[in-house]
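Encode chain A's predicted structure.
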Amino acid sequence: MSEPRLRLRVSEIFHSIQGESTRAGLPSAFVRLTGCPLRCRWCDTQYAFSGGEALALSEILERVRAFGAAHVCVTGGEPLAQPGCLRLLRELCEAGYRVSLETSGALDISGVDPRVARIMDLKAPGSGEEAKNRWENLECLGAGDEIKIVLAGEADYRWASEQIRTRDLARRCEVLLSPIQGALPLRLLAEWILRDRLPVRLQVQLHKLIWDEPRGH
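Encoded structure for chain A:
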């Protein structure tokens, strides 16, 4: 049951096609929470850093229910920056949704409900936030989780390759490499992956191919 006094600051709640992760292409409900302690150079959701509206868990669940989607993605900003996010994730699972969490990897994920698929970033040097990687989180990941690394260029790719190999990331869970649009050509990244036989999945932000407007998609 929802805690009547618990409220979360929400940037937006919307219905769209999942554009990232192995769930790409799925109709999904998205809950984008406000706030993020990181400032990645390539961030495309800066509008979620502040603002939004304070909603009770019951209000969030009601809005999600109206979309009739089987999958719910909780994202940000950095959703775990709000402690109430853990309760939201748990209640979404209890309501019968398939739930995924998109998180920066900078905050502790150990308290996330084990039914939730954790889509966790590792911040490459090009993001400007490499120092924020919380490497202890890797021990929390399982086969149902995913690691996402966004790349700005060849230096980021070399860094990612090193982490994948030395930390044996592909053994833990699926690893996805994603190029920054306009900075790293998709074809070039694909050729590097094939050349080096990296055990990863190449990821394209599908929603950006469908819609020009980032907000609400």
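The mean pLDDT is 94.
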